[in-house]
Amino acid sequence: MLMGKYQNSIDAKYRMIIPSKHRDELGYHCVLTKGMDKCLYIYSLTDWENFMKKLSTLPTSDLSSRQFMRHFYANACECEIDKQGRIVIPQDLREYANIEKELVTVGVLDKIEVWSKMEWENAENGTQPDPSQIAQKMAEYGI
Q1: Residue 99: helix, strand or coil by DSSP?
Q2: Which of 68, 110, 128, 129 could be 47's S-S partner, Cβ–Cβ 3.0 to 4.6 Å?
Q3: Is the pLDDT at 126 greater than 80, yes or no?
Q4: Helices (H), the chain
Q5: What is the per-residue pLDDT for 124?
């Protein structure tokens, strides 16, 4: 399980370091794609395959399903993690997530979210539900 938050940056060659705690779970290859909320997702190959199996069950006759699948498939790239634990973030994905230099990586169950530091701070400042909202949603979800 991936968890924790780490501050990081990209270098002049647009490489980011995968936090060492996460590298063991990812192995030497991973999949990088657009995420939700202006961030990127990094999946291990196994978790990517599991996610793709779930997507393959969506009805292709439904426009929203097709758009959702395209969001992930069309923007996915397989990355090799180098000996220093880095991957290259392609330009189109950097632009989507507004990543220029500083970033935040967040482990979220089966994936890593990669945020520009600015987008992360905006999301954290603008979307913090109060404890009663959290409790209500947990009850709705049966947690």
Answers
A1: coil
A2: 110
A3: no
A4: 20-26, 45-56, 63-73, 91-96, 117-126, 131-141
A5: 81
